[in-house]
Amino acid sequence: MCGIVGYIGDRDAYPILVKGLRRLEYRGYDSAGVALVNGSGTLSVYKTKGKVDDLENYCAEKDVSGQVGIAHTRWATHGEPSSRNAHPHYSESKNLAIIHNGIIENYADLKKKLQQKGIPFRSDTDTEVLVQFVEYVQQKKSLDLLTAVQLVLHEVIGAYAIAIVDKRTPDTIIAARKQSPLVVGIGEDEFFLGSDASPIIEYTSRVVYLEDGNIAVMKRGKELQVVNIYNTKLPHEVKTVDISLGQIEKGGYPHFMLKEIFEQPECLTNCMRGRINVEADNVTLSAVIDYKKQLLAARRVIIVACGTSWHAGLIGKQMIENLCRIPVEVEYASEFRYRNPVVGAGDVVIAISQSGETADTLAAVNLSKERGAFIYGICNAIGSSIPRATDTGSYIHVGPEIGVASTKAFTGQVTVLAMLALAIGKERGTVARAEYEKIVKELVSMPAKIEEVLTVNDRVKDLSRTFTYARNFIYLGRGYNYPVALEGALKLKEISYIHAEGYPAAEMKHGPIALIDSDMPVVVIATHNAMYEKVLNNIQEIKARKGRVIALVSKGDETICQIADECIELPDTIECLEPLIASIPLQLLAYHTAVCKGKNVDQPRNLAKSVTVE
Ligand code: M6R
Prior knowledge:
The chain is of the alpha/beta class. It folds into three domains: 3-246, Glutamine Phosphoribosylpyrophosphate, subunit 1, domain 1 (4-Layer Sandwich); 250-444, Rossmann fold (3-Layer(aba) Sandwich), CATH 3.40.50.10490; 454-600, Glucose-6-phosphate isomerase like protein, domain 1 (Rossmann fold), CATH 3.40.50.
């Protein structure tokens, strides 16, 4: 969703803010803006529709001096993307400026009350209500900024990460968090603020992840203070982040997405490091050791997630059911949280989230926790909200994922789920030693096999040119490869804007087959596994109706290659790990198709990397 950056110290704020916005642009990108307070107590707000580049062009001739500032990239919720609705928002007197990520649910009510008191509004946003309200209470009760913010937050219903400046107290930034992430970076006599650590790590590795209900007071030359709305001082832990700058830059690739696709062998090596002992054919997850009792007592597992993470969950379900013999349900977090689910003691809820900030997944976690379930998180962003809300969990350790289309996080999630299923299955005695060892060995060989699959890149690039004409795609797979079909379809639609549907291959004849004609590309995952013959029949059915088949097959499969229009050969692996191999050409297909169509691969329209509003 929206990205927040802030700086207060002795350096010029503007270049730090703009660089920070670029690092956060993946979160939202329909407009951008900056507020700067300079030494003479002037508060200037510059904002524009478009991307950070547009903001920079807009500011080219402006006075951007000041050593204090806040900045924002927006992903519209209330009010169309426009300069008017872009953040920061001034208060009526222009003494204050605010930036906000989240949704103020009672904004209409608050706005009406403020309008009745004669306060005019300049935008359609929920955010402007906050700044006008702060100014109103400041004036009415002669309050300092912090007290006014605390008073206003008492009245506010919703989710927020905010940062606010007041030109009359130019040595202070106040930031507050409730259900939207916010990180404070601590430098030498300076503070940085970010929606995540990426705008901060260039300057300091010392950070404080704010908790819900925290208000941070950043005063130049003073210690960080964290309080709540009752002005009670709160303890805060300074952590060290170990993300390198290289990890959040493109490293010579034209897009983050391509870099992240090609990083997958290394990412999976990192994901398994210290967890798989190759000599002993053994998987050790510290969370499983520490919470063995709770995990072994599980009568049921419920996986909650959204989007790509939900697809990984569907694969995890099959792994856990096969290896641990525990029933598993996979739920869209957004549905689960609102349907009074039967969940409680004895259930293990696994929350999967790359960002660790998805609002629906976080809400599903909190609901399950309240009802007594044991919560296990599988996340990527270290220190994000979901891992902090869970009882335990395993990070996927694939490094920051910047491209909006999730790629390496998906394979990381599947890898952790495989290790988790193996570790629990072994403890429960539900997986035979030979089977266990076979899967462990195969997991260890995955980085090399993915390296091999990546050599199809040029072939997939050529193939994508053939199919850019298509307005629809169908993706088919069975068993472990059905979620891969869903994931392939999601990748294509989100970045190329081609409509695509994923189906279990056998379901095709119950409806989707009506769509097949000579214009319809059908991607079929048809590797040599237990379902091979059945999927082969499905391919015949498609060809009989003149559909155009792109088949992912096991190396050396001549049968399918003679029938299909296009064949991509994949290295052999065991069935439960096929998703790690088969998903790679589908990521590449989506990527090259989008590039061929001239789309913005890393920042597709309407999407945000981190969905922190429901
Ligand atoms: O950060 P999360 O894994 O919780 O995000 C969930 C989805 O928003 C995310 O996977 C989304 O579907 C991606 N854009 C897919 O590529």
